[in-house]
Amino acid sequence: MLRRQATDQERQAIWETLLRHSNRGVLAYGEIAQAAEEFGFHRSAVSRMWKRGSAALGTGVAADVNSHKHERGRKKVDRVSIWLFVSIQSVQSRTTSRTIQDIIQEVEHAWEIMTAETLNKTFLTLQLVMKEIMNYEGRNDYKWLTFTTIS
């Protein structure tokens, strides 16, 4: 029975089994094939797990045989919250707030000087971004829209 993916617990169990059967980090002939048959994985997959663990032991670090597939690809960024933070920062004045009262006054001042047109554009843009996120079912591969592309 051959499977495609091993869980982290299975990887650790395979590594510990091979480590018990090794003599100072060297496996006898056929140990990898025997472990592969015992755990139901392909011999080359078990061999890769052994090599990854052995390489870590050679550097004096605890062996990490866990899957690293979750570390691949583009890292997810919450663009909406970053956009909101940047828009709030651009509205606030650049003075240094030393107390909570100063912060409250700065926010109140920012709301006072904000025009209705700017607020309207800001919330329309946010609405368009949220609509695109829903159209793409939460994925982050949507195109950024501007008012010129919509009109």
UniProtKB/TrEMBL annotation:
Organism superkingdom: Eukaryota
Gene3D superfamilies the record matches: Ribonuclease H-like superfamily/Ribonuclease H
Pfam families: DUF7769
Protein name: DUF7769 domain-containing protein
Domain named DUF7769: residues: 7-54
Gene Ontology molecular-function annotations: nucleic acid binding
